[in-house]
Amino acid sequence: MNRQTFLRQMAILSGGVTWGMGSFSGRAFGATPFAVKTRGNVLVIIQLNGGNDGLNTIIPAEDDNYFSKRPDISIKKADALPLANGMYMNPAMTSMKSLYDQGQVAITQSVGYANPNRSHFRATDIWNTGSDSATVWDEGWAGRFLEMQYPDYPVKLPKDPMAIQLGSVESLLFQTDVGRVGTVFEDPNLFYQLVSGSLADTELPPATLAGDELAFLKQIASSSIQYSSVIRDAANKAKNTYTYPNTNLAKQMSIIARLIAGGLETPVYLANIGGFDTHANQKTQHANLWKTISEAVSAFQNDIKNQGLADSVTIMTFSEFGRRVNQNGTQGTDHGTAAPMLFIGNTVRGGLIGANPSLTNLDSNGDLRYNFDYRQVYSTVLRDHLGLDAYKTQSLFKQTFERLPIFRTSPDVLPDVVGMELNPPMPNPVSDLAIVQYVIYKPVLDIKISVHDLQGQAMREVYQGTRSQGTYQLNLSVLGLSRGTYIVRMASSSGLSQHQRLIVQ
């Protein structure tokens, strides 16, 4: 944790009075939780460690180039599972194909970024932080999101963990500038047993530099004690309603389902599966991995459906990179670039998103070009599933990224059709002052934002001028407007136009 930030927050909490652990018991941090929130949407991330081969996951089985570049590891059209537009699913993914046929799987094709890194470690850090290839960040994109959602952390702890990872070592995904916001364990009851006999050390730390940091460590220890009971109780409160396969990933997914059904309001979960670094003898190994994922995901979907939770939970897969187009000399593939990402749930539109990967228009290294920047995908998840607004999403990535038609609440067209976006005013209804956010994806000349009545008469001009790419917000005063319904309209000289309803009370 950044020590200055911690001390500043301690001063705010205590009104500037010297603070020490002696005034808090181990459970005291749980005594002043955040206000109880209604259950929101949940994101379950499955990380495919090692670099997933996209071309043998979602297969261009009608492209002759695919077979010529992969004479030994290609999958025949007759064996693969048909999707659409000449693309097929790996034959081991029958459970996933069943979900796809029900409209519960969206596949974003060829996701990557410019100048991709081929190191497992660096590439994983890039995907976990949301940076570009030349920029090193040490905070995870999910961690930054959770820091926005829980601004009082770590002075006050929410009643439920902000993020949960099934595993042993916490991912960079959950790192923030005020510490790590994820809780990591492999089994809820073992985690509870590990700390159940512990008591928080309430002895006053010394008034030294080390004492200040010791106070922080004691707070983290107390949060582990608090959350061990919360996690154990949620896991024991609910039962899985569907039989899961006997695999490690399926066990992780079954625990996540129990925690969600048990009432945890944790918004982000992370599960892991390794083995995707398929440099040799890829064909069978890769198929077995996707069979494991498909069956675990299918069981999870059936389970949360039975529990009445399927409309709020989405699964997202990602890997640090794809594989090369050409097979290597050991019937495998080496580190490559772009690959598909899968989204599973009742929340998604379903189907293929984006053009099929081109096996002829390759980059200078002979690898796949990406259709979509991976931060477009993350921005879509944050805004359309986790409810982050456009302004905060831009600040999280330090750039504006156009969303993709992944969710039912997402734009229903690909980004090249959308030049700008007007978001609903907040608050709405409004009695005095509303905030209007809008996004410019390409430089637009002569933008005009105005308020009209339902007969189309202009009542108020809010903004007129030129904007470069970015996310903006402005204040809209409704003082002087009669009560009723109005239209906020944004139009440009190029003919683009959008509008949102505004209710004045």
Automatic annotation (TrEMBL):
Classification via InterPro entries: DUF1501 (IPR010869), Secre_tail (IPR026444)
PANTHER family cross-referenced by the UniProt entry: BLL7424 PROTEIN (PTHR43737), DUF1501 DOMAIN-CONTAINING PROTEIN (PTHR43737:SF1)
Name of the protein: DUF1501 domain-containing protein
